[in-house]
């Protein structure tokens, strides 16, 4: 043990040195590898998912060679700042707290919430399926919300407690719906299958993950998908503070991937709906 | 450090959960007591047949956590929805309220059955014999001699079980019911102030149980007034 104590700092120093040395050759991107369908680890150990494919596409656009590695969620930002990686793409939401320690590119996933219902249930025909409504644009959102309101009247909706989803449902539909709050997504999924709730309202990525499970095969996304600044700022690429060149490269590549439709295609492939953000 | 305005606000929120807590406790205790009497009757009247079933029931429900029983009823049974619909039971089991009442009732019945059996078996044989000598028999013997003595002996234990039931209703919050604990959990996830909210929730349960214990004490004193000095 004593020997270990002595050599660990030396080994650590060595890895740091080699890491710094390799920096100008490849761009090292960290992901979590445990958040289907954004990024996940396949049974053979390789990484796959929306963000993995997007990262490869962005790297091609930036004309750099990329290495993508999985890293525990809690260790993502510390190892970015320690120089182990150059960027994080792990469905990481842009928040003020994180902006204190890292910089973010423009968002590449739009925050959006959607309804999941039973394919043969009372809410299977909710209006607006497949359309994303921006709640910040009140003129466009008004009629869509009114249509949803009409269809949801008297129905029971499940949502995860203390989330923006609960806040929004309470604000928009108030007493016209019965709101059941759950601690976790599995609990509300089970109650949807049991018919105790008519729909589950949750983040589109969470629903995409739920729907990929075999038990959930009778469930589908129905009605308008809602997005807006009240739900948050979306997920972006995290880079070290002050790494402005890399940030700008990512921003340009993300805009280009959105402009030529690559992003929409990837979104539809992995999430079933286009969650390309709108930038000013 | 303690924010009085926040405490008041939390108190107002949590008090709205008191009726549901009381309803759950009262209804399940009542149904549970009736069920427990049936379990005791089965053990006394038909010890070799139905009594065995009753003893196994008590063994199973006393030996497993109430939370597990509640989850089995709420999430477990919902997987047999088509069968339950065919039996006409789904309307009841779909509702989290009835799932909670059923779980609480089945659980307390097992404990109460043991309390009642203990009370019954502690009736001194001499008293029963004396009653028989005085010409009592059958139901009259039970109503006038055995039951009053058994009741007095079971009351302290039964009071304990009632207090436990008031607190056990907090588990109903795990199946979406917004009673005191459910509202407290919600308030915490919004404010992140666990100490204040749980203090208020704890105080509410304490008040409910103080009232209950006082009432039980009154009843006990009344039943035991022949022993009062």
Automatic annotation (TrEMBL), chain A:
Q: What is this protein called?
A: ABC transporter substrate-binding protein
* SUPFAM superfamilies recorded: Periplasmic binding protein-like II (SSF53850)
| Solute-binding protein family 3/N-terminal domain sequence ranges | 26-274
Q: Which GO terms describe its cellular component?
A: periplasmic space
Which SMART domains does its entry note? PBPb
Does the keyword field hold Signal? yes
Q: Which residues form the signal peptide?
A: 1-22
Subcellular location, record wording? Periplasm
Instruction: Provide the alphabetized UniProt keywords.
Output: Signal
UniProtKB/TrEMBL annotation, chain B:
Q: Which GO terms describe its molecular function?
A: transmembrane transporter activity
Compartments annotated for it: namely: Cell inner membrane; Cell membrane
Its domain of life? Bacteria
Segments traversing the membrane: 20-44, 56-77, 97-116, 162-185, 197-219
User: Which key words are in the record?
Assistant: Cell inner membrane, Cell membrane, Membrane, Transmembrane, Transmembrane helix, Transport
Q: Which GO terms describe its cellular component?
A: ATP-binding cassette (ABC) transporter complex
Metal-binding as UniProt keyword? no
The ABC transmembrane type-1 domain extends over 18-217
Main location (coarse class)? membrane
| Bilayer topology | Multi-pass membrane protein
GO terms for biological process, alphabetical: amino acid transport
Entries under NCBIfam families matching the protein: HEQRo_perm_3TM
Instruction: Name the family the entry cites.
Output: Belongs to the binding-protein-dependent transport system permease family. HisMQ subfamily.
Q: What is this protein called?
A: ABC transporter permease
